[in-house]
Write a structure and sequence with these properties.
single chain; 422 residues; mainly alpha; Growth Hormone, Chain: A; 2 domains; 0% strand
Length: 422
């Protein structure tokens, strides 16, 4: 496959001045805080509500557990991410996402209807998707030559939020009503997740790269359908999608069943929760670490490290499942956590390099659709394999095969001498 973009990069002129750098750092801080609340509060905290709602309303675990996966049903809206960003600008799209998720969590705290809860969770997922599609576009505007590290800082907020809010939510739920805590988290989304973003992100639709007449792509590519056509006929895009599906299949399939597998091996629920929380901590470190390396190493080298960590995390989990070794569990937490933190960095940076800035604003939304779709399906597949075999061995072996496949695909699609920040 030829090492070529779908189109040349066309960005607003960036002046390297102290004020520009300061604004860029402020935008990164706002993205970190938004992710801290929307992901930490919308997913990790919400997982804690499953046993609480089951006990409170005497619903089945399947019914309440489904509320978690419903968060991902808004995946199709990601397909329109490029259109929304170009029409309304990242600031408006991000703010809309935060408002939707926070408002729905407020409403969730006031209802006792399972059907209404499912509806509100689906809308919360819509808010999360709207926020998520803005991150790489805003980072690319201020950190074009440090793109990977910029994304790493923004995305690390997701994992730090998961670490903090899963712990804090657990403590508060021991003493206060789940309704009161949900209101507190929703208010936090407004105050922490929305206000800083409104203060520092400019109200400017030109933050999204525009198509100019001097590009290799035709002038007709300024039309939304033409840009999508450019994307969908790119061999590189579909190769990257295939690798992404393999990688996130491992990510979601393992994470969803991690606590159950640990407890099945004879470890207490408290230690299982420690493993989950520690995985989030190492994911934050992995995001920052691989983001830093991606601006200094070739993408091929970063991809090798990323998927070696991922495969090592799965192998050590398999060893733990059969031996109960504490060392194997620790190795799993470290390697798997670092890998799931770095997967966004590698695959998003590779996508940006292969499709170019103009198409990337559309391509990221389509790519993210496949990510969310995999997040929705993978836990079901892994659980079904458990039901068929009565153990997680078959599922873990399938996850290991997917990790290896992701690494091979990522290496094949990566340029050998290009750093992630360029």
């Amino acid at each position: 496959m030829a090492d070529a973009h779908l189109g040349e990069d066309t960005l607003p002129t960036v002046v390297s001045s102290p004020s520009t750098l300061s604004r860029g750092r402020a935008v990164l801080g706002a993205l970190f805080l938004s992710g801290f609340m929307l992901f930490g509060g919308g997913l990790y905290y919400f997982v804690l509500l499953v046993p609480v709602l089951t006990k409170t309303f005497h619903w089945s675990r399947a019914a309440t557990g489904g509320l978690v996966s419903t968060f991902w049903l808004a995946a199709p809206i990601a397909l329109l991410g490029g259109v929304l960003l170009r029409r309304f600008g990242p600031r408006t799209v991000l703010a809309t996402g935060v408002i939707i998720e926070a408002t729905c969590l407020l409403a969730f705290s006031m209802t006792s209807s399972l059907a209404v809860m499912y509806f509100l969770r689906a809308l919360m997922g819509l808010g999360k998707v709207l926020y998520a599609v803005t991150i790489p576009i805003l980072v690319a505007r201020w950190f074009r030559h440090r793109f990977a590290l910029g994304c790493a800082v923004a995305w690390s907020g997701w994992h730090v939020g998961g670490l903090v809010l899963s712990w804090l939510g657990g403590v508060l739920l021991e003493h206060y009503s789940w309704r009161a805590i949900s209101v507190m988290v929703a208010v936090g989304m407004f105050v922490v997740g929305l206000v800083p973003a409104l203060l520092v992100i400019p109200r400017d639709r030109k933050l999204v790269p525009q198509v100019s007449s001097g590009e290799a792509v035709s002038k007709a590519a300024s039309n939304d359908l033409s840009i999508y056509r450019q994307l969908f006929t790119s061999a590189f895009f579909w190769v990257i999608v295939a690798g992404t599906v393999c990688c996130w299949f491992v990510y979601s399939g393992t994470l969803a069943h991690q606590a159950a597998l640990v407890e099945e091996a004879g470890i207490t629920a408290r230690w299982a929760s420690w493993a989950l929380g520690s995985t989030a901590a190492f994911a934050a470190l992995g995001t920052l670490g691989l983001g830093w390396l991606a601006d200094r190493w070739s993408l091929a080298a970063v991809g090798i490290l990323e998927h070696a960590l991922l495969a090592s995390g799965i192998v050590s989990l398999l060893v733990f499942a059969h031996t109960g070794s504490g060392a194997a569990l620790v190795l799993h937490v470290v390697c798997f956590g670092a890998a799931i933190g770095g997967c966004d960095i590698f695959w998003t940076t590779l996508l940006k390099h292969r499709v170019g800035e103009t198409t990337f604003s559309y391509g990221y939304g389509v790519w993210y659709f496949f990510v969310v779709l995999t997040l929705l399906i993978a836990p079901v597949v892994a659980g079904h394999l458990y039901d068929l075999s009565g153990s997680y061995t078959t599922a873990i072996l399938l996850l290991l095969a997917a990790a290896v496949a992701a690494g091979v695909i990522g290496f094949a699609a990566s340029p050998r001498a290009t750093r992630g920040g360029t």
